Fold:
Amino acid sequence: MDIYKEWKKINEEKFSTQTIKKEEIMNAISKESSLTINELKRRLKIKIYWALFFITLFIVWFIFSLSYPTVLPLIGIVLACYTAGAAMLWTHYRKMDSQLDMTQDTLSTMKNNSELIKKALRYENYFGLVTFPIAIVCGFILDDLYAGQTIIEAISQHNFAVKFIACVVILVPLLHILSDNMNKSAYGSYMKRLDENIGKMENLV
Structure:
């Protein structure tokens, strides 16, 4: 018996078995990650639909307010903000993959999808920091605008500056925290699962 040949054969069989198991594990991670990415993408799509719903409401509001020209600039600003936000979400949604292809660099694709969803939610938080103060302004001066006053006239009375600053200091952080918690509830577990799979894939690669 040639001990060297036997030893070499055993090692080759062991390596082959390890390679097969490694590929099976990678395939399993890839399939699970595909499901996770699809769910994240689906939830992001729902968020886009909500944005489109509000855009539609603002358009209807704009149309019904055509006889009140002092209100239109404010509605236009809100509509522009929501349109920009929806466009940003749609851009990130379109870039996400629906399925992982093992013939490509799966790990890079997983990382790219993880970064896209994180960016979309991060930008949405920034969007909220802009739109929340605008919503507060609307709440304070809308009646005055419908009464025929301009935006400048409306914000120049009723201690507007003091009320606005107080509300921004109190409400904006609270609304930001609420929005962040809602995103964590809707996306957090899936994002964590995807990041864990990325870590597992990195260890295998």
Notes: The two ends are 37 Å apart (CA to CA). Residues 137 and 164 are 7 Å apart (CA to CA). Residues 3-64 form the longest helix (62 residues).
